[in-house]
Structure formats: structure tokens, C-alpha cells
């Protein structure tokens, strides 16, 4: 889950420099192909036909680059959308809404007392942390088992009389 939060806050995007290198790389490769085509077609170098063919090569390279960049942009958008769908669940939004309600209530109570809720939160933070930490530690400790009465030297109770115990049986002085 931490990885997903990192992906949302720092999405992997193609940089402008990477875009320029991609387009220039495509331009070079495609222009080499078009120069070779001109040579194989016995075109005079720098003739009008040669320049038209080279311009067409430039247009083809630019279009292919635009398509590749559009595909990369769509893939990035899909990745971001999938990550957000995993992280930003309805439960997440309900939790944010509940915390917002608590904050609004806290702000209203502080305002009614003529106080600044931010200052109160700064003061309350360490106290709340200590309380939650102590509560967490208390919950994590295994409870100690109570000793048996016989381990404490308490004699076993006599058998219950037929008809049950009466107040005299329970509260009379034992001689």
C-alpha cells in the first residue's frame, strides 16, 4: 500500500527531455530511410523532389513520435488511474469525511471558547500520542493469570448444604 501512495504522489511521467530525445531519434532513423529511398530512386540531391521526399520523412517521423508519445501518456494515465482505484477506495473517502467532521466540530468548539483550534491541536498532539501509545502498549501485554485460591492458602469451601446456603451459614461467626 505504501508503494501505491508513492505512485500517486510521485507518478512516473515521461520528461520533456525524454520526449525530445525520442522525437529526434525517430527523426534521424526515418530521415536516413528517406535519404536512402531518394538515393535508390536516383533523385538528384537537393532537387525539389528530393526536398519534398525529405519533408515527407520529417512529417512521418513527427507523426510517429506523436503517436508513440500519446501511447505513453495513455499508459501513464491508466497506471495512475489503477493506482488511485486501489488506494482511494470508498472506505478511504468515508474516513476522510469522518475526520473532516471531527475537525469541523473541533474548530467550532474552539471558536465558541474564543480559542485557536490549531494551537489546541499542537498542545493536544503530545498528550494524545502518549495516551494512544500507553493504550497500545497496555493492549499488547499478556495479562497475568490470577493465582488459584489454594496457592494463596485459602481453604476449599465446604460442600453446599442441601437446600442451599442461608444467611446464617454465610455470616455466622465460625468458631
What descriptors fit this protein?
175 residues, mainly alpha, elongated, 2 domains, single chain, 71% helix
TL;DR of this structure?
This protein has helices at residues 2-9, 16-40, 48-87, 90-112, 117-140, 167-171.
Question: Can you walk me through this structure?
Answer:
By secondary structure, the protein is mostly helical. The chain has 2 domains: 2-88; 93-140, no CATH class. The chain has 6 helices and no strands. The chain has helices at 2-9, 16-40, 48-87, 90-112, 117-140, 167-171. The chain starts with a helix and ends with a helix. The model has no long low-confidence stretch (mean pLDDT 87).
Q: Major β-sheet, in short?
A: none
- The helicity comes to over 70%
* First-to-last CA distance: 71 Å
Share in β-strands: under 5%
Helical region count?
Answer: 6
State the low-pLDDT regions, or none.
none
Structural class: mainly alpha
Order of helices and strands: HHHHHH
Overall number of structural domains: 2
> What would the average pLDDT be, to the nearest integer?
87
Shape: elongated
> How many individual β-strands?
0
Oligomer: single chain
Radius of gyration in whole Å, from Cα?
Answer: 40 Å
Amino acid at each position: 500500500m505504501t508503494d501505491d501512495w508513492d505512485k500517486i504522489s510521485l507518478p512516473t511521467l515521461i520528461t520533456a527531455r525524454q520526449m525530445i530525445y525520442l522525437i529526434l531519434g525517430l527523426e534521424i532513423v526515418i530521415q536516413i530511410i528517406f535519404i536512402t529511398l531518394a538515393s535508390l530512386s536516383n533523385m538528384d540531391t537537393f532537387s525539389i523532389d528530393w526536398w519534398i521526399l525529405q519533408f515527407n520523412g520529417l512529417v512521418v517521423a513527427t507523426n510517429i513520435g506523436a503517436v508513440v508519445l500519446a501511447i505513453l501518456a495513455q499508459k501513464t494515465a491508466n497506471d495512475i488511474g489503477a493506482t488511485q482505484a486501489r488506494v482511494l477506495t470508498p472506505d478511504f473517502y468515508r474516513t476522510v469525511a469522518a475526520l473532516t467532521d471531527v475537525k469541523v466540530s473541533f474548530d467550532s468548539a474552539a471558536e465558541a471558547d474564543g480559542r485557536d483550534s490549531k494551537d489546541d491541536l499542537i498542545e493536544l498532539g503530545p498528550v494524545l500520542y502518549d495516551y494512544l501509545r500507553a493504550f497500545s502498549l497496555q493492549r499488547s501485554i499478556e495479562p497475568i493469570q490470577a493465582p488459584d485460591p489454594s496457592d494463596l492458602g485459602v481453604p476449599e469451601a465446604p460442600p453446599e448444604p442441601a437446600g442451599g446456603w442461608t444467611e446464617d451459614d454465610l455470616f455466622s461467626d465460625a468458631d
